[in-house]
Write a structure and sequence with these properties.
The protein is α+β, with helices and mostly antiparallel strands. The chain folds into 2 domains: 55-80 and 105-237, Penicillin-binding protein 2a (Domain 2), CATH 3.90.1310; 242-289 and 303-618, DD-peptidase/beta-lactamase superfamily (Beta-lactamase, 3-Layer(aba) Sandwich), CATH 3.40.710. It is built from 23 helices and 21 strands. A hairpin with a 6-residue loop joins strand 20 (547-554) and strand 21. It is elongated and about 110 Å long.
């Protein structure tokens, strides 16, 4: 073992001390001379940061028209550490603010002064330019009070409230889930604003100023060398047609329900209306109106188009007809008799009066209940199946291939899936082996346990227009995620052969383009030259007057628009839903209206049970 001499130990110690000293020198040089990171740290109390808020990206319609723009507003900010006594009443007069509210905020600032430190906090949010200009002229009278410009939302169209959603200040729970946000930031909370928050929000910037020992701003730090510019958010293009959306909302004023229009080939949503909805004037100032909107008995924040599963009513008869054609238990020439209803023993399912013996095309045109009672029983009592549970399971599978009974997967939040019953439903209700086709006869006319959203019914209309397939309805023109882009472009085929759709279409065409004398139920939807095809529905409502519905598309060949109109408590689908749909179709296809008297009648109709005559006719 070799022992180290005293000289060697001393030498090693000296080398170690030199290395350590060199490290300290290098680190001090980096911190004090070479590295600005510490000098410009937000924790450095000698510096003051002022946030530069980016303008939020625009939301545009399919043609580039602005649905949501921006306008400049000003947040009036207070720095509690810099506040000095001033005339509070004069300040409130200039800003049109409540003196008690301002005093309460100052008291809160004093209470939290140690926690706030040198931070600047909001005093008045979103002051308009007129108030800001008055303040700016005399701002020297109010030490510690400054203004920060920021863009807030502006709405060129009084439409799309439920669809667009709103922006509001983030709270503690939001920041906890999204730590990149800070108190005072705004974010999209619902609708497209929330879906596209990452694209729309932009990137905040900041300006750095130097304070003196009395915390007064002296100058820009290093002439703005380290300032950061705000980066505006990206624009988002929707599939909505702004003119169509605005027009349909005008028609649906003072009505309760929904209208959804889709471009059949692409699945792009052209209009999506939930009525009554949120006025964009209130949407722009959601914090002020939130409690009023939330307490409204008609629930304007509830998006009926995607969240309310309704009984589809007679529009569902076409689907039962398609299944029967596919199963081989029905042909277009099959006739059944109707004597004001379907009668079995003591049971009767009523029908309106029409010619007694009709074929499949006439049954669609006339919307015969009895015909589809026979059709459903032929499907469920088909001897090709061992029992009704087996045939019912197949019926359920075919119905769900049309997108019913589950969410379609659109890019709007909170979409509901509705309900399509199967054998397990009736085994639970009646007991296994204790139900028959007559037990579920209400399914023949779209009643009973069936529930479908207006979006699903509009998609159903698009499937009929496409003769057997659909693309998932969507509201955004482009999707950044590759998987989403693929999902919305994929064709999804139903369990029904294309040839059977061609057999169904004539009945839909005659329902609109024949006369009431012929028994056509949707004749009020007829527009010369447009070749609209459709089907009316009058859905039974146990809570009041029947719901009116209509599905359709146009033109008959190479369709450009498919639509569902659903109006609660309106009565007959042919009376109310069909004309509303035809006006929307005509407006979209031609840009004008050839039947002003129909337009006037539909716009002036009040079908909202909560409507009060003194109310304005603009609560959508």
């Amino acid at each position: 073992m070799v022992r180290q001499s005293g000289a060697d130990k001393t030498k090693r110690l000296i080398i170690g001390l030199c290395i350590t000293g060199a490290i300290f020198v290098i680190q001090l040089f980096r911190l004090q001379i070479a590295d600005d990171e510490y000098k410009i740290s937000a924790a450095n109390n000698a510096l003051r940061y002022e946030t530069r808020y980016p303008s939020r990206g625009l939301i545009l319609d399919r043609n580039g028209k602005i649905l949501v723009g921006n306008k400049v507003t000003y947040d009036i900010m207070a720095t509690p550490a810099d506040l000095q006594p001033f005339d509070t009443l004069e300040f409130c007069r200039i800003m049109e603010a409540d003196p008690e509210e301002i005093k309460a905020k100052f008291a809160d600032f004093r209470k939290r002064r140690r926690k706030i430190g040198y931070q600047t906090v909001p005093l008045i949010k979103q002051a308009d330019s007129e108030k800001y200009n008055r303040f700016a002229e005399v701002s020297f009278k109010f030490p510690g009070i400054t203004a920060v410009s920021r863009s807030t939302r502006d709405y060129p169209y009084n439409a799309c409230g439920n669809l667009l959603g709103y922006v509001s200040e983030v709270d503690t729970s939001y920041i906890r889930k999204n730590p990149e946000y800070r108190s005072g930031d705004y974010a999209g909370k619902t609708g497209i604003e929330a879906i596209c928050e990452k694209e729309l929000r932009g990137v905040k910037g900041y300006s750095i100023f130097v304070r003196d020992v009395h915390n007064r701003i002296q100058s820009s730090f290093e002439n703005g060398l380290h300032d950061s510019s705000a980066v505006p958010g990206n624009n988002v293009y929707t599939t909505i047609d702004a003119e169509l959306q605005n027009y349909v909302e005008e028609i649906m004023a003072n009505k309760v329900g929904s209208v959804v229009a889709i471009e059949p080939e692409t699945g792009e949503i052209l209009a999506l209306v939930s009525s009554p909805g949120i006025s964009v004037d209130k949407l722009a100032n959601i914090n002020r109106y939130y409690n009023e909107i939330a307490s409204d008995p008609m629930k304007p924040m509830f998006n009926r188009a995607v969240m309310s599963p309704y009984p589809p009513g007679s529009v569902f008869k076409i689907l039962n007809g398609l299944i029967a054609l596919q199963e081989g238990v029905l042909t277009p020439s099959t006739t059944y008799r109707c004597s004001n209803g379907y009668h079995v023993g003591n049971f009767t399912l009523k029908c309106h009066s029409h010619k007694p013996s009709i074929d499949m095309t006439e049954s669609i045109m006339m919307s015969c209940n009895a015909y589809y009672c026979y059709v459903l029983r032929d499907i469920l009592d088909n001897p090709a199946y061992r029992n009704i549970e087996e045939s019912m399971k197949e019926w359920q599978r075919m119905v769900m291939s049309f997108g019913f009974g589950k969410p379609l997967g659109c890019d709007l939040p909170s979409e509901q899936g509705g309900t399509i019953p199967g054998p397990e439903t009736y085994n639970h209700t009646h007991g296994k082996g204790r139900w028959k086709s007559l037990s579920v006869i209400s399914l023949s006319i779209g009643q009973g346990e069936i529930g479908a959203t207006p979006l699903q019914l509009a998609n159903y209309a698009a499937i009929l227009a496409n003769r057997g397939y659909y693309r998932i309805p969507h509201i955004l023109k482009e999707h950044a995620d590759t998987a989403d882009a693929a999902k919305f472009s994929e064709k999804r085929y139903t369990a029904i052969d294309r040839k059977h759709f061609d057999e169904i279409i004539p009945g839909m065409y005659y329902a609109v383009n024949k006369t009431s004398a012929d028994g056509a139920t949707a004749w009020r939807a007829g527009v010369k030259g447009l070749e609209i095809c459709g089907k009316t529905g009058t859905a039974q409502n146990p809570h009041g007057k029947d719901h009116a519905t209509f599905i359709g598309f146009a033109p008959k060949d190479n369709p450009r628009i498919a639509i569902c109109v659903y109006i609660e408590n309106a009565g007959f689908g042919g009376t109310w839903a069909a004309p509303v749909a035809s006006l929307a179709i005509e407006k979209y296809l031609t840009g004008s209206i050839s039947r002003p008297e129909v337009e006037k009648q539909m716009k002036e109709a009040v079908l909202n049970p909560y409507f009060k005559p003194e109310e304005k006719n603009d609560n959508r």
